[in-house]
Structure formats: structure tokens, C-alpha cells
Amino acid sequence: MGIRLTQAKDWMLLKHVRLAALLDTPTAFAVSYQTAANYSDEQWQVRASSATTEFWLAICDDKPVGMVGAVLSSANRYNLIGMWVEPAARGSGVATQLVAAVKSRALEKGHDRVFLEVSSDSIRALNFYLKQGFSPIEEWEPLDSHPHITVQTMVWTVDSGCQ
């Protein structure tokens, strides 16, 4: 199993895993399945090129089993986004490796914090991020794709000791 940053040539793998994620947990992401399914091949190629948002894939036997993204917000926050691991690979350490890739990239780019948003209803995700050194902060907002769901911001800092 390996973790790798996507390139434009990985667009079909990224599309496959992203659509699987949106079908599996449709209320966990800021975009709907229908929106993502309507992206053109060119849009997927741009997304996979890591030109603006960077994506990492967890690959096992030439098949994507997980993904995570990172993007710099307009507030200059390095944000972990789009985290997902297929059900058969959960609990295997894949998620920890994906988060480690984002933390490492944040440090390479000079950021001492990584932010993310998670629904308080997602107990498994919330507990996982706590184990990865993220702490909740008092920032709440509606999820773009499902405004009736509120997400809370969590932050990891270099000095938290969990890298």
C-alpha cells in the first residue's frame, strides 16, 4: 500500500475514489455526488493535477482505497479536505497515512497548522481526528452540500506533538 500525490494522469483513479466516497457517505462532503458526477474529464484532470487543491491517493494492488485533499483557504489556512477510506480498508492505518501526508505537506509549505471540518454526528471521524492530534475549536458552519448539517472546525498544530 502506498500514498501518492496525484498528477493529471491519475484523474480516472481520483474520479473513481471520489465518486465512491460520495456514494458511501454523501453527507460528509461539501459537494454532492451529482455535482461531482457531472464534472467533465477535463475538470477531473485539472483536479488531479494538484494545481490548486492537492490530492493524495492510497493505492493497494493498483486500486485506490482512500483519498485526502488539501487546499489553502482565502484566510491562508491549510485545510485537510475530502478524507475518505473505503469500508474494507478502514482500521488498517490507511487514514493515518493519508493525514500524515497532509501534515507533512503543510510543514513543507511553511504552515504550522492544519484545519479541517467535521460533523459532530460523525463520531468515528471525530475520534479519529482527535487521535491524530486535532482539537476542536469554537467555529461552526453549515455544510455547503447539506446546509441542515453543521460542521465544526478542528485544528492540528506542530506543537501538539502529533506528527
> In CATH, what is the homologous superfamily?
Gcn5-related N-acetyltransferase (GNAT)
C-alpha-based Rg, rounded: 15 Å
What share of the residues does DSSP label as strand, in percent?
A: 25-35%
Provide the structure class.
alpha+beta
Number of strands: 7
CATH topology: Aminopeptidase
Largest sheet, strands/sense/barrel: 4 strands, antiparallel
Polypeptide structure, described:
The protein has 163 residues and is an alpha+beta fold. The chain has one domain (2-160): Gcn5-related N-acetyltransferase (GNAT) (Aminopeptidase, 3-Layer(aba) Sandwich). It has 5 helices and 7 strands; from the N terminus they run E-H-H-H-E-E-E-H-E-H-E-E. The protein has helices at residues 11-24, 33-37, 41-48, 94-108, 123-131; strands at 2-5, 54-60, 63-72, 78-85, 113-119, 135-143, 146-157. A 4-stranded antiparallel β-sheet has the order 1-2-3-4, with helices on both faces. Strands 5-7-6 form a 3-stranded antiparallel β-sheet. A hairpin with a 2-residue loop joins strand 2 (54-60) and strand 3 (63-72).
